[in-house]
Design brief:
The chain is built from seven helices and two strands; from the N terminus they run H-H-H-E-E-H-H-H-H. The two termini are about 35 Å apart. It has a two-stranded antiparallel ribbon with strand order 1-2. Helix content is about 60%, strand content about 5%. It has a single domain, classed as Winged helix-like DNA-binding domain superfamily/Winged helix DNA-binding domain (Arc Repressor Mutant, subunit A, Orthogonal Bundle), CATH 1.10.10. It is mainly alpha-helical.
């Protein structure tokens, strides 16, 4: 399965904002980029898309940045995937042109992944990350 860079970067950016929640101080683009490991030139476009979808909002000014638009528990990853255009493993143009069994298989796999994500919220992902950080800290 292939996850598009856009989708990966969007989830990583939301994860950083989710870990910052409920602090209402905005995270600056530079900080999100550094923590999430996402190049700033791509991140700005992704944050604009997330803002247009209502997942984040921006605050202008010297101390401005980005904040989650709602609680991490209310952000469902399946909805995010659908709204951002899918996982990227099956090109929309190919879908229109091909209706063979292999193409249909890839479509079914994409649907299965989206269905698996229905039960996953950003809060779940944040908790998983916090647990991972605790484990890494303990091991060192």
């Amino acid at each position: 399965m292939k996850v598009s860079a856009r989708m990966d970067y969007a989830v990583r950016a939301l994860l950083e904002l989710g870990l910052h929640w409920p602090n209402n101080q905005p995270l600056q683009l530079r900080a999100i980029s550094r923590k999430a490991g996402v190049p700033q030139k791509f991140l700005i476009h992704i944050l604009i898309a997330l803002k247009n979808l209502g997942y984040v909002y921006s605050i202008r000014g010297k101390t401005g940045g980005y904040v989650l638009g709602e609680a991490p528990a209310k952000i469902n990853l399946a909805d995010l995937v659908k709204q951002l255009g899918g996982l990227g493993s099956f090109d929309e143009e190919k879908r229109k042109k091909k209706n063979d069994s292999v193409s249909l298989l890839w479509q079914d796999i994409d649907k299965s992944v989206v269905n698996a994500l229905k039960g996953v919220t950003l809060e779940d992902l944040c908790n998983r990350q916090r647990q991972q950080i605790k484990t890494l800290s303990f091991d060192i």
